[in-house]
Amino acid sequence: MLEAGVTEGAIVNLSTQTAKSITPGYCCYVTSKGAIEALTRSMAVELAPYGIRCNCVAPGITNTPKAALLPETLLRYAEKNTPFGRAARPEEVASVVAFLCSPDSSYVIGEIINVA
């Protein structure tokens, strides 16, 4: 973006609610998502002077083909522990990403937005 001379823009990274919890068997996944959240905050500070905002969306369990591969007990546990008691629809997560890319979020920067 900088090389292209962009003077205003938005970057939205994707993390997960799991980055904030300890889930046995998911060490590498959780570590990588935690790194994405730290990268988001660092990029936000470094790119702000150029008019580029950086934020992150951290969804909980989402009704995707990948989620369908989870063991049934883990899927039900995850759904039970969300405020709505169900998995998010992909378009519910996508609408938050779209908001962060829009001018409506022009003063939102360095945030990790939980979608759960």
TrEMBL record:
GO MF annotations, alphabetized: 3-hydroxybutyrate dehydrogenase activity; 4-oxoproline reductase activity
Domain of life assignment: Eukaryota
Pfam families: adh_short_C2 (PF13561)
Keywords linked to the UniProt accession: Oxidoreductase
Catalysed reactions listed for this entry: (R)-3-hydroxybutanoate + NAD(+) = acetoacetate + NADH + H(+)
Record bears the keyword Isomerase: no
Keyword 4Fe-4S: no
Family the entry assigns: Belongs to the short-chain dehydrogenases/reductases (SDR) family.
Record's protein name: Dehydrogenase/reductase SDR family member 6
Organism, as annotated: Haemaphysalis longicornis
UniProt lineage: Eukaryota, Metazoa, Ecdysozoa, Arthropoda, Chelicerata
